[in-house]
Specification:
Layout: H1 3-18, H2 24-44, H3 48-81, E1 83-87, E2 94-98, H4 100-104, E3 108-109, E4 116-118
Antiparallel strand pairs: 1-2, 3-4
The protein binds zinc ion.
Length: about 120
């Protein structure tokens, strides 16, 4: 077995493991690692098509990792802003509404009866 095949098999294990993940961040990180291993194989094979493919895949994975990271940062920021309680005029349910939603002007519906309670 030559080195290209050995590295290719390592890449296969990483890519297969990637697609077994439920957690999206872990899936994307393994995608970067698997793409990088396959990029090495592509370069060793002198294959331009596989090189371009794996650079593209790595770029897409990094884009999604950044998006997941920014969503997590925003979630933490919103959590830090706190919540307010709004009573539904229709069913009387007290709804806990994130204060960050006050500034966006979006409509907020009662979680019990879907009556619009804000916006
Ligand atoms: Zn309601």
């Amino acid at each position: 077995m030559n080195w290209i095949e050995v590295i290719g098999w390592v890449g296969n294990v990483v890519v297969i493991t990637q697609f077994l993940q439920k957690d999206m961040l872990r899936l994307r990180v393994l995608g970067v690692i698997g793409g990088s291993v396959w990029l090495i194989v592509a370069i060793m094979m002198n294959s331009l098509s596989l090189t371009v493919l794996n650079i593209t895949i790595i770029g897409i994975q990094l884009y999604h990792i950044r998006k997941i990271h920014m969503n997590n940062v925003n979630k933490e920021r919103f959590k830090a802003m706190g919540t307010t309680k709004i009573q539904c005029s229709s069913c009387g349910t007290i709804n806990s509404v994130g204060l960050h939603r006050l500034s966006t002007g979006e409509t907020v519906k009662c979680y019990m009866c879907s009556t619009i309670i804000m916006g």
